[in-house]
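Researcher: First entry.
Model:
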Amino acid sequence: MASTQQTRSAAPSSGVAGHTKTTYLHLDLPCGAELAVAPLPRRQTVGLCFRVLTGLADEPDDLTGIGEIVENTLSKGTQKYDGRALADAFDALGAQWSSTAGRQSMLLRLVCLPEYTLQATALVAEMLVRPTFPDEACRVAVDLAQQALKHLEDEPGDLVRVMMQRVALGPVLGRHPGGTPESLARITPDAVRAHWRRSYHVGRLQVTAAGPVDADALAATIDREFAGLGETSRGGRDPVPHTWTPAREHRQKELEQQHIALALPGLPKHDPDFAVELVLLGVLSGGMSGRLFTEVREKQGLVYWVGAWHAQPRDQGVLYVGASSTPDRCRKTYDTLLRELRRLGQDLTEEEVARARDQIIAQAETEDDLTRARAAGLSDDLFHFGRPVGIEAKLDAVRAVTRERAVDYARRLPVDKVCVCTLGPREMT
């Protein structure tokens, strides 16, 4: 490997059942990109992730949604290919890819056979480094985004989540990634190109790979193909300042059901107790055995649907609980959801903790161990930890969760700081 490439870390992750020890390579490339590789020589495919550290947090207030427009039109034409030819080039390699624009990054995932890794990487670079953003493609993308906003009005479950994110995450990260009708109307092809030039820089690029990868060859390809993409200085890594403020919001909408969502502060992924939060979520919402399903739906019949989940912007965490009920039962549903959050610290059992741990481990040993998932997990590590962590260390952390640790964390849940959003025909008193 070229001497100008700096190895930041190459530490092995401890092995657990079902996994051998993995030595992760972590490199700073001369072009400014960051690369992490999980060599898995016995796999049959290679998973790649290209994360550009720019997202909703970087969008101007009057142009929210432009990040998704950029992401949707990157593949519609480059200096070398038109949109159809670029798609054909990926198909010729048998490479499958998808991309998504988020609140703090744009992520492109790709899976291919090992022998096509370098060619597929060069095609991704063609998209990210030399896009042309054809006028008609930009206009179509804006029109589709407007249609998606209209469709959102017919999906109350999604709509209340958008409300909750705005209330919980604040005026920057809480904005809807899909924009507003007013902001989308301002997005022109020139604005799309300007936003790409402003936001897409090689210094913001994190690349991860898992599988039978030639790390030296991949590093050289990335260094060559992505050179010249904007600035090499590392940006997009600072957390977005946010002060948690308890709040309540209702939106009047004529529906048969009343939708309710609660949010309270959670943990960032790098917190030592994050695995404890994972286990508690499993206790609350781990399928039909979860407390929310058995206590709120089955025993009391209060809701049509109930669940709990969490989200982690960089250096932050949010816990969500949601349900759909009737207008008459909304207040009782709210009280019951809060009761279940508090009850976690009162009567949590060893059996519940063990079942939640086993569910998390089972998912990791199946879905999360796929090659593409290993690459995505490594990308997640760079984003949240700044270094490779790996599935093995995360499973070790889950196995170390005891009932005592779970009860201690549950008793510290800041239920007094809850945010509440309701959507339906009646405001909750």
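Researcher: Second entry.
Model:
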Amino acid sequence: MRARVLAEPFPVVHLDTDALEATRLLVDRALPGLVVVDHDGLPLFILPGSQVLRFALPEYVEQDQTLASVYSESDADALCESLRGRTVQELMPSKKFLPRRPASRPIVAPDATVMEIAAVMAEQHSPVIAVVDGGKIIGVITVHRLLGSTLPAT
């Protein structure tokens, strides 16, 4: 099966997208991650849901998990409040997420095979890969869709 057959519509966010809006998109649509695109609409990187969670988590709690126990339930319930007024780009922990070269972007061509798609997903540690044709995203493939297309019949 080729990427063009597996590709399905998927929302994207930009570096200047409001972080709270991006997080709502992730939650409301039960997405495995966010596709972050550049100014030309090409995927820069995929932020898995676990990385989006890190946006809201104070860095000192991530570095020392024992500090999480000092938070009250009401403070913890407001975890995402820290995202208000910030952009996706502001929340990036470093430039390590930005690809060093275009080939390292989470992209496959429409004629990519299942094995090629799986190899890119594994190399990128990404639950989502964009299918790009002629400089435009024609859809994405999630790991669930990819695995589902290859499961043997029961």
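Model: Note on the second entry: The first strand starts at residue 12 and ends at 14.
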